[in-house]
Amino acid sequence: MKKVTILLVLLFTCFALQAQKIFATKTGQIKFNASSPLEKIEAVNNQVDSKMVDKTGQIVFSVLIKSFRFENQLMEDHFNENYLETSKIPKADFKGFISNITTVDFSKEGRYQIELNGTLTIHGVSQKVSTTGTLTIVGSKPTITGIFKIKIKDYGITGLYIGDKIASEAEINVKCEYQ
Amino acid sequence: MRIPMINLYKKQSGYLLLIIILITSLQLVSFVAKAQTVDLFKMQDEQDKKDKKEKTDITTSIFKTTRLVNGQTIENTGSGILDVKISHRFGTVNTGPYNFFGLDQGTMRIGLDYGITNRLEVGIGRSNYNKEFDGFFKYRILRQSTGKVEMPISISFAPTAIWRSLKDQPETYPIHTSDHFYFSNQLLLARKFNDYISIQLVPTMVHYNITPTTAIHNDFYSMGLGLRERLSKRLNFTAEYYYQLNKYPGYNNSLSLGLDIETGGHVFQLFFTNSTGINESSFITQTEGQWDKGYIRFGFNISRVFTLVKHNQSTTW
């Protein structure tokens, strides 16, 4: 009987080790808002590429800057050409870990507060970022949402209007539904 | 009875041992697999390299706005966006201080451009030069791109119809409504060489429904040349020249030199030009001024955009 127990325990640990799952999406959303009282500056990107590993909590977000859509075409052109310089630096990404991933039970529906730590690279400049977010599990599919702020000047983005017509801090809103 | 039972038990435990060994070895295998576990950071770096080749990146901002000085550029107004354009040309500079170097006089055009799709733009306008109304559309045929689809140039087609509403002088021949129409067809070929230089070629045909004498052909062919050179992030130098293959007698080729100044949501253009009129038939084929005699005008274009139709904005969350 003892041996059977050992066997069962071994069997379970074996499964636990094998079941490392990658959740991914290519249609995540990132919205940013750098509006000032003078001008509304908002854009949405609906083509965010993100992957997450459930056991290690490793997480990656990658966006093509040109896929940010503004209401004003001219503003979009200026954003790409003068501020983010997308012809030279087409992408931005976040590489990091969900540090409290062990508290998340992927097999159960629910909401979990998560802590994200990692490196955010925008305009070719990398900065350490730590923020909180929400991980929701509905029908075994996880969804991550989060809001955080960045200082535009921290990423080497320059321009006369930053801090005037453009807010000096941009609010970034993330929503990714994984498959 | 007892002995076989023990035997059976021994046999069973033997099986169990075997299974345990098997599972342990399996675990070892999975442990090795865990040691080689997925690294998303590496995966992402490889994905980025792949994307560079597999995604098409359309070149944007070849020119800063939809007009270079007088003529069209390859750029279109974005879909759902209304662009109100006010263009003004003062009098000629060589009229001297009495005329405040031309600033006492003015020719102007008010226009509305609207983007139906990202490829199709339509526009209407009214100029006080000959009291002309004009309407046009501009369609993108090809777009310059890099990546999966490598397209070296952008091509657009822009036809314009112009109606002169100025009342006629008494003539010996009867004048019909159709005689007040001009048409132009332009093919725009443009390339952005780098962030600093863009060039466009504009083969143009202007058609007059009527000309004063039969000796003058109704069709005028010309080649436009446009240049944009970036001076700083917000300042661009522009040049526009139309070389006419056959000219309307007494008129010159149009040459304009200017600056595009970007200010947040709009572009402000300041320039010198030898043309008076602002639509295609008047500035390409009816340019009176000559640069070498100071017969040029100072002018500006103001453009202000309004978003009429919002799109791709899912702001529900």
SS summary, helix count of chain B: 3
- Output the strand order for the largest sheet of chain B: 2-3-4-5-7-8-9-10-11-12-13-14
Quick one: overall form of chain A?
A: elongated
Described by its quaternary structure, the protein is heterodimer
> What is the mean predicted local confidence, pLDDT of chain B?
87
- The CATH superfamily label of chain B reads monomeric porin ompg
Which H/E pattern describes the elements of chain A? HEEEEHEEEEE
> What structural category characterises the helix and strand content of chain A?
alpha+beta
Secondary structure category of chain B:
alpha+beta
Q: What CATH first level of chain A would be assigned?
A: Mainly Beta
Question: What is the strand content of chain B?
Answer: 35-45%
Helix content of chain A: 10-25%
Low-confidence stretches of chain B: none
State the domain count of chain A. 1
* Helix-strand string of chain B: HHEEEEEEEEEEEEEHE
Mean pLDDT of chain A: 87
Shape of chain B: elongated
**Helix proportion of chain B:** 10-25%
**Class of chain B, according to the CATH hierarchy?**
Mainly Beta
Largest interface comes to: A-B, 53 and 51 residues
